[in-house]
Amino acid sequence: MALIGVGLMGGSLGLAVKRAKLVGEIVGYSPEPAALKRAVQRGAIDRFTKSAPEAVREADLVVLATPAGSFEPLVKECASSFKLGAILTDVGSVKGALVGRIDALLPPHVVYLPAHPLAGRERSGIDASSATLFDGCRCLITPGHRNNQIGRPDALKRLTGLWEKIGATVTTLDPFEHDRYLALVSHLPHLVAYALVNCAMDAAKEAPGLLGFSAGGFRDFTRIAASSPEMWRDICLENRAEILSALARYQSVLERYRRLIEAGDGASLEAAFRDARRVKEELRSA
Amino acid sequence: MALIGVGLMGGSLGLAVKRAKLVGEIVGYSPEPAALKRAVQRGAIDRFTKSAPEAVREADLVVLATPAGSFEPLVKECASSFKLGAILTDVGSVKGALVGRIDALLPPHVVYLPAHPLAGRERSGIDASSATLFDGCRCLITPGHRNNQIGRPDALKRLTGLWEKIGATVTTLDPFEHDRYLALVSHLPHLVAYALVNCAMDAAKEAPGLLGFSAGGFRDFTRIAASSPEMWRDICLENRAEILSALARYQSVLERYRRLIEAGDGASLEAAFRDARRVKEELRSA
User: Would the pTM count as exceeding 0.95?
Assistant: First the structure.
């Protein structure tokens, strides 16, 4: 197995797969040499190479675990180095059109099966990675529309098995549907949290003691806003259309709140808050 | 001590004060009789009365722990029943002009010292209360501008001592400054979370499986949005001006994000996200 990128997600996948003894050697590559050394020390990879093509050369399974913006250049660079019948996958948070663009870069003998494990934590980087990160999580596999590719059903079975063996529940989903859904329940929440923290930091310039008055609510936002900036930049760029549509929807809810507060409409505010509270029960039954 | 309201905050205060043996009898009153019975069972109060004036009659210390919108009618109702030299306090999240309005309703022999412990949890109600809720929290005391009131310095000392003995760190603050700060680091975050959950629920009407794709980020929001709807309604109404100003600031950050995403300006997005990440270090040193 080759692991391109050894941050939180890549590192955790390496550790989990090693612990479950699902693959032989794991060869790592990352543009950050320091992370590669730490990944070897932590046991997430067995060795590393100086380039991505060298890492993929002998791998049956290649995992992209870098920010999504780097997928296309990496795949281009490796295109002629993949082993015959290799499976290419990733752990990225955006799919949509990117899947077709990557499929188009690949030789016919490589099967690309994009994946997105719904797991994460506040910190990023190899030192935050854990063999149990994916335990109990949901993993979405979003195959593209490349027709009748030889070996694809077997590859899907193999990748599904790997995720299941490290504790994930796998769902197969259309890549565009994936992006529409995730824009609302993942990408938008992160933007909203980043914006809130930016807003409070901006206000704190005029009121230096401000952040000391923060309690539970705000601190939850700072945790969400501590996710990887490069990763979220790439998600915003790649899933632009769906994020803009989710953001517009959100802005109109917020504008409705503003009008209700301005009008002193307590009953409508209370009804909206009461409605929001119901979601916790819906999540339990989801 | 009299406890008016025996939900999460009132119940926890009763339990904490009892455990530390700081007062004699605790007499409770609430418009919800079922909560009073549970509060006796849980040991948060010793007995309860059928009206607020009966509860306050013999109390040296009276605590309002109902939604802030009920403070004025309750104080009006109790005005002639307070004991000579009684201290009135509360655990509400809004101060500002409300403090002066309550001061104006009180007889000269009652000292009002508004308080706001920065503590909370996702659930509300007596069954969510805990004797350790305030352990390690910050408690803001925001005296009004009633001049040279006899007994006020002693009352402040006594109330500060009580909060310190149940684990809080006390800061004294102007009530208007309190509302300006809390609008940004507490009221706005709650509104933002409620709005996000409303937005996702609205979208889920068209995409029934949507909420099942939610992971960490969104779930943090649903926890925040599970706070008491009545309490947040009252906060929005009472701290309207500061909340509207914080909301306007937030809406402009969000609109800036929207434009950056639309323009595909990855560098500026990344810079904004990176900036937000810094707040966690600032919080640690705050």
Answer: no
B102 and B237 fall within a common domain: no
B77-86 residues labelled b (16+ CB within 10 A) or e (exposed) = ebeebbbeeb
CA distance A51 to A271: 57
Please name the residue of chain B whose CA is at the shortest distance from the CA of residue A274.
Answer: B229
- How many angstroms separate the CA atoms of A114 and A69, rounded? 14
Chain B 66-85, residues with CB within 8 Å of chain A CB atoms: 69
Which residues in chain B have their CB less than 8 angstroms from residue A204's CB? Answer: 282
- In this structure, the answer to whether residues A207 and A77 fall within a common structural domain is no
Nearest Cβ partner of A218 from B119, B186, B195? B186
Q: How many domains are there within chain B? A: 2
How many residues make up chain A in this entry? 286
Query: Beta-carbon neighbour count of residue A18 at 10 Å?
Result: 18
Last residue of a domain, one of A124, A145, A173: A173
Domain boundary among B157, B173, B189: B173
Structure token pair of residue B184: 């940004």
| pLDDT tens per residue across span A126-158 | 999 999 999 999 999 999 988 778 888 999 999
Same domain, B154 and B181: no
Same domain, B85 and B209: no
The complex's ipTM works out to 0.87
